[in-house]
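During the no-cost extension, the postdoctoral fellow (Dr. R.K.) reprocessed legacy sequence entries with the updated structure-token encoder. One reprocessed record is reproduced below for audit purposes.
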Amino acid sequence: MFRVLDIATKIILGTIFAVVLIGRFSAAQAGSFKVLHSFSGATDGCYPVGGVILDGAGNLYGTTGGGACNSCGTVFKLAPNGTETLLHDFTCGGNGQEPAATLVMDKKGNLYGTTVNGGSIGCGVIFKVTPAGREKTVHDFAGPPTDGCSASAPLVMDANGKFYGTTSGGGKHREGNVFKLAPDGTETVTHSFNSRRSGDDPVAGLVMDVNGNLYGVDSGGGAKDFGTAFEIAPDGAETLLHTFRGSPRDGSVPDGTLISDQSGNFYGTLRDSGLAGCDANEGCGGVFKLAPGRYRNDSPFLHR
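Re-encoded structure tokens follow.
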């Protein structure tokens, strides 16, 4: 039975809640910071610009992009005690160069990722690395007009083992595309971006809903050339969800992967947006929310 609490009870419960909260906050603050591994720039590579993923045993997996340390990039495993194992060392040739995105792991523990450069024509590759460290080029990007170029975003995998991703270049209009990779390695370009109509330079990863629709952002293009938010149906049809209009009401350059909540709202970040200041007075960035629906052009700011 519900009843209104009297004032004394409210004060007692409020005090208990505050004490518990302070205790939890203090415990969190008391946690210690520890460096698990410092990259040397030698055999273990340098510049791990992508994120890491975690397996069931607590091991971390990631990549280093290489570059300034005369490395073409690596794939590594880091044990819970900080011991690093080099799983693969890229050679700057046909097997790819500069892996910049977070890896994806399948049910068998195989790791999949993309490279920005390398491959037969320098447009990058999609690669697979087994738990034992054996690497295989799954797809070699052929570049425009039939294929993409420069895959810097993480892949997303569906329940059937198909992968989906973006390239920031290449495609029919040389402005990036969305692709699908079947388990047998067959790649299909499902959508090619066209700057004015649908945006360009999709450097962020995609998210997928239960119906197989893909959602993402372009960091450029659209009506104002400030970027867009889009939906790609399983058949490749694109729906423009939002076109960014720049400061001060809106923002520009959305280049981070979206997340969604249970109500279908999307959240993301903008590199330039909001109030004047920072670089060239274009704004210092913002966080936005995009409600469900088709082509919403109201200002989506949560914070700027």
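Residues 1-28 have pLDDT under 50 and may be disordered. The chain has two helices and 24 strands. The remaining legacy entries will be reprocessed before the final report is submitted.
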